[in-house]
Here is the input.
Amino acid sequence: MANDHIIELIGYLANDPRNPVSHLPDFITFTIPITTKWKDKNGCIQEKTTWYNCSSSNGIGQIIKKYAKKGTQVLVRGIPSINIYQGKDGESKGVINVAVKTFLLLSSKEKETYKEENATHYETTGSEFVVDLDDEIPF
Here is the structure.
């Protein structure tokens, strides 16, 4: 993964994590919108929202589905890809996909639930809820 481009997002889940493929229980998808606001040259406030389609096809998918819900604030690190397609209006459009490699709960309610259910692990490591796939890959 050393040569891969990594994107880091902090935002709120726009939907509950879901499993769109029933025969792959660890494949989970969710969306994070990030809104950027700025003032244009006339002093009017402008904003643009970019939607990131995130997916996890590994062991952390079930953890994400269990502890993260719509509105949960998360930090996601992953490998981005862009798919470009032509819309019905003839305009080129793009979709940003992120293959999740690291996931961190930032919302305190979900973090506390995780700590309560995993008290022994949390007390012995003293770490936040972080899942990093680099530690699990045998090569």
About this structure: The mean pLDDT is 80.
